[in-house]
Design goal:
Layout (H helix, E strand, L loop, with lengths): L1 H18 L52 E6 L11 E3 L6 H4 L1 E2 L2 E2 L9 H14 L1 H4 L8 H6 L10 H4 L3 H10 L13 H19 L7 H11 L1
Length: 228
């Protein structure tokens, strides 16, 4: 029985190879497709008409508020609230400089290409809690709600020494382009907001790894008073 099985298997394999188009020469006939190619999927080609939409066009206009890559968000500013005032226009860019990529040539840079202020860190906290805390947790230990539900081993602990010594530009690039199971946030978080998140993360890491000796004498006394 085993012999007949192998004989049948070989015959079927030869038939499949023959039908798959391995004819040994060029042919003007359309190939036989056992599995339909993706080019035959139901879709509209560019500039084609459509009977489905009232205006007869298959291509649709971008939704209101769509911002092409490389443009600034008109009327939107990096700010925490009206009392703080605007810092600078927000935008998305595909320029190759450090400000937009986090890289200096082929290497990741370190440092911030914009002024780090209380406003920037406050903005970073807001954006972090909206976009990052769901996986990494509000304190950055990788214990967000997604991690608690799915127990993903790939969620990074942002308080880990590896992340603490990582260049600022590399963290910015990771936010922009994603890594492993983390998707890219570049298309949905403005450049300034990405740097704001990095600034807040540095403050968050500092808060979890600071020492009493890092504070001035006045600050230490104030802390002691708060404990009492």
């Amino acid at each position: 029985m085993l012999r007949y099985f192998f004989a049948s298997f070989i015959l079927i394999t030869c038939a499949v190879v023959a039908l798959a188009g391995f004819r040994g020469q060029h042919s003007g006939l359309p190939p036989i497709e056992i599995f339909p190619d993706m080019k035959h999927q139901p879709k509209y080609q560019a500039q084609h008409s459509s009977n489905f939409f009232a205006d007869g066009r298959a291509a649709r206009k971008p939704v209101d508020g769509t911002i092409p890559l490389g443009y600034t968000l008109a009327g939107r500013y990096l700010q925490v609230g009206a009392k703080n005032g605007p810092l600078k226009p927000q935008g998305f860019s595909n320029l190759p400089d450090y400000y937009n990529t986090g890289k200096l040539g082929d290497s990741y840079g370190d440092g911030f290409p914009l002024e780090v202020s209380a406003q920037l860190i406050d903005r970073g906290e807001e954006r972090f809690n909206i976009n990052c805390a769901i996986c990494h947790g509000r304190t950055g230990y990788g214990n967000g709600i997604v991690q608690k539900i799915g127990n993903w081993a790939t969620v990074a602990n942002l308080q880990d020494e590896r992340i603490r010594v990582m260049p600022d530009g590399q963290i910015f690039s990771t936010i922009t382009n994603g890594k492993n199971t983390m998707g890219a946030y570049g298309p949905q978080i403005a450049v300034e907001d990405r740097w704001a998140i990095v600034a807040y993360l540095r403050a968050l890491q500092r808060s979890q790894n600071g020492k009493l000796a890092d504070l001035t004498e006045t600050q230490q006394k104030e802390l002691e008073q708060e404990k009492k």
